[in-house]
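The records we work with from here on pair a chain with its fold. Taken together, the tokens spell out the fold as the letters spell out the chain. To see the layout at work, look at the sequence and tokens printed below.
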Amino acid sequence: MSYLRTFLPWIVFAVLPSGNWQWAALIALVVAVAVIAQQVRAGAEPDALIIEFGSAAFFAALAAIAFADPDSGVHDYASALSSATLAVIAGVSLAIGRPFTLGIAKRTTPREVWGLAPFIRINVVITAVWTAAFAVTAVVLAFVAHAGNAHSITATLIQIAGFAVPMLFTVRYVAHVQAKAAAR
């Protein structure tokens, strides 16, 4: 559920009609801010909200561009840019030693595990997979947009895969690690 909440603004943006992209960006911004507010009220630490803060910044900028020029060329590349933004956010979180999944994992993991090397290493691996998935998705969506198919079912399926593949990896990898630990 944490990942769904984390990526809710991006999901909202992806499923709203692209013909009204300025409204989709604004609604995604409102959702991002609402998710942040809800999580802060629930006691979430800032390191658990890395993607959420990045989402709010991205959708604020995108909404500003979209309302200033609804016919902007950015529209066709908005999906590629959103995946690229997520890749940058996730990649930077790795580079600074604060993988974005670490904050999410802390929500369901006992505090005594947080500083352990295996816990951190698992989150580095998971965040690296998400980063790679976002980067690959961004590149593929850029090619699709360049070919004139930015608003096609193909682009939507690519976006879905860009979230589904790393989410499936995360679930399976965590289950694998837990099974290995239980076997010891």
User: Anything to note?
Assistant: The two ends are 29 Å apart (CA to CA). Helices lie at 2-6, 8-15, 21-41, 50-68, 74-95, 100-106, 117-146, 153-183.
